[in-house]
Amino acid sequence: MLRPFIMALAVFGLTACTAHSPTGRGQMLMYSPDDMRQMGAQSFAQIKQQETVSTNRQINTYVRCIADALTQPQHLAAIDPQQVEAWEVVVFESEQVNAFALPGGHIGVYTGLLEVAQTPDQLAAVMGHEIGHVLADHGNEQVSRGQMTNAGLQIAQIALGASGTANSDMIMAGLGLGAQVGILLPFGREQESESDVIGLELMARAGFDPAAAVTLWQNMAKASGSAPPELLSTHPSSQSRIADLQSRQGAAGQLYNQAKASGQRPNCRVPG
């Protein structure tokens, strides 16, 4: 009975490739960009079926404005030249303080987040962070780790062409969406810190004030109380995280000033 699993692990070792994230961190990845796009599309389709899509025109326009600014090709290419996606943005009507981004160019924002991310710059900090997970291929890294360390669950069925509720849930968990489907597989602290760095750079390049990232996470900490918002359940906030963002304000501020000088200042209006 063990032989198939041993053979599977051997195949995993042969098919995995060593890569580097945009910050230079080494990664072991098993899936191609096309595989990840399909996983992302499948997961996003399931979420859209499960959640209530907002029809509020003002809110949708506001969130789309920020997403469009962040995902301009020149900003994404400065971090990862391989990112050429056309991004789909959906707002979900929910009290959840949450947002996410998926491979293949999908962004989801919950209306509850707007109660905490109160300005365009603050919302850009969250969305930039989530896009950072995609740019750094964290979903691929998570699913690959799961395959290589848990053959007993036969996670190999996640591969291209997999179908069925159980497989879909595992894919979504690997992409950092465990909270939505009851399987908790959050991104690790290393990945979270990396997404903070990438998100800070991305928002600054797009013309959003990087100082708002510090304010945003301070707001998150205040709002959490005894029951952290959904976003904090998989994206832990801490004083060290805030301190790290503060320490990076110098470099991010330079990018922000350059963006403003070149006319990059999004005019995204907060819904009235």
Number of strands: 5
Question: What's the arrangement of strands in the largest beta sheet?
Answer: 3-5-4
Mass-distribution shape: globular
The poorly predicted ranges are 1-10, 151-166, 178-185
Give average pLDDT, whole number.
Answer: 81
* Protein structure class: mainly alpha
Q: In what range is the share of β-strand residues? A: 5-15%
How many helical stretches? Answer: 12
Largest sheet: 3 strands, mixed
Terminus-to-terminus distance = 62 Å
SSE ordering: HEEHHHEEEHHHHHHHH
Helix content: 55-70%
Radius of gyration, rounded? Answer: 18 Å
Q: What key attributes describe this structure?
A:
two-stranded antiparallel ribbon; 5 strands; globular; three-stranded mixed sheet; 272 residues; disordered N terminus; 12 helices; mainly alpha
Please summarize what this structure is.
57% of the residues lie in helices and 8% in strands. It is mainly alpha-helical and 272 residues long. It has a three-stranded mixed sheet, with helices on both faces. Strands 1-2 form a two-stranded antiparallel ribbon.
